[in-house]
Specification:
Layout: E1 6-7, E2 10-11, H1 21-33, H2 39-52, E3 56-62, H3 68-76, E4 93-97, E5 102-107, E6 112-115, E7 134-141, E8 149-153, H4 162-168, H5 174-180, E9 185-191, H6 196-209, E10 219-224, H7 241-256, E11 263-265, H8 268-276, H9 281-290, H10 295-301, H11 305-310, H12 317-341, H13 347-358, H14 360-372, H15 375-390, H16 395-409, H17 415-427, H18 435-445, H19 450-454, H20 461-482, H21 485-509
Parallel strand pairs: 3-8, 3-9, 4-7, 9-10, 10-11
Antiparallel strand pairs: 1-2, 4-8, 5-6, 5-7
Helix pairs in contact: 1-2, 1-15, 1-16, 2-15, 3-8, 8-12, 8-13, 9-12, 9-13, 12-13, 15-17, 17-18, 17-21, 20-21
Amino acid sequence: MSDPHRRHGTICLVTSSLAGPLSAAVARLAHTLRPQVGPATAAGFDEVVRRLSAPLQVAVAGRLKSGKSTLVNALIGRRVAPVGIGETTRLVTRFQYGAVDRIEVVGVDGSRRVLPFDPDGMIPAELDADVRTVSHLEAYLTNEVLRELTVIDTPGLGSLDSESVARTEKLLDQVSRDAVAGAEAVLYVFTQTVRADDQETLRAFTAATAGRDAGPVNAIAVLNKADTIPPESVTGSDGDVWQAAALLAGRQAATLKPRVADVLPVIGLLAESAESGAFTSADADALRELAEVDEDSWQTMLMSADLFTTWECPVPATTRARLLTKLDLYGVGHAVRAIRAEPEITAGALRRVLLDASGLADVRAKLDAVFRARADGIKAAAALASVTALAAADPGERRRVHDAIEQLLGRPEAHQLRLLEALTLITANAVSMPDDLAEEVLRVGGSASIPEQLGLVGRPPHELVAYALERAGWWRSFASFGATPAQSRVAHVVHRAYFLIWQQLRGASGG
């Protein structure tokens, strides 16, 4: 099949509606440089331009049994990613938009074979093929979410299978590296607490995807299975499960900072069941029957999964077991409380109650704020990193690429790329800054909202204008008189960012 972006051996400029102005500018840069570099580098530039016109690619990573695939299903809104242990869970799977639902098994040799979905509409757990000959899976779905995001599900870390560990934890397998090489952002999933190897893997994983370290612009973490956190283990939770999860997520955010923009609690199983259609009217009817159980028996049943399914009750044990697989004890208890508070609640309204309780809305909002809102800048920055790397081996190519990038970054409309570069330097500890100044750089570069960038959410416009100008002056002075050469480079970028914010605010207010 021919590539629609290619004509007569060259690659056309980005025309997709997904490509923002920064991505288009980088595509033009690659197009202009193409005749000035060798064939191998030119071919690499073609691939960079192709990615710029594609949806933002988000890799979902985490330890084995962290619930990655369940969360992927919730985000897509369809139970399609296999969970548990199987051949297909050992492989990288790319979920992307397609006009026709299909699965393609991509071989190590580049071959492609169409694989049917199983009777439940999911990717089969087994491939009926030697997994060692398979590169990755590509699942095409007629799903609106995937029009703007390509989701890459990766094998779990800490797998009992050593090959799976090598594929993701160390990314030594070149096939898997190629399969996730286009990822520009990372959603990292963990449960309970962040381990030391989680932090190392997050760093290694992002470095292997887009060639840039994780940071508040391109990485989010979620504390999954929030309902399994014992409230008594978290000081200040007041015995509330969700409060305990929120507090723990906040502490883990401090641990992972500045590798991720935030850590959010979520109950992936609840989100998947409520969002994918797995929760049915029959489930709602069963929950209504459970709501009629006397309080003493009900509290006993909620003590454990065994008691829930074996305690004498009008609802059949098999039905109760089915509810556990979809909602777990926390979701069942939450649903019964909602029914008792509103006996006439419909199945649809009960589903929405469960979805609200899952925390998925906050995760999606953060994805929108961090990834979708800044997709153009994230993709353009990753593309510039790729262009630089492609030309690194040849001194002449390296010089021409460097000069062209510097010219691009000198334009006011491209300053966001400078800011992302400064943010990466701070995140990677390549430039040492006092803690308060590093925090400020992360704040200015880590949000698309001007009030959040200034740290003045909810304040009147005139205060924003005055503060932006004041900080622009301060950072200019620091760059000239108080900074080391490395700090000065960052300080000039931050000064320029504040000055452009000030100009934008003045223009908006007509002042």
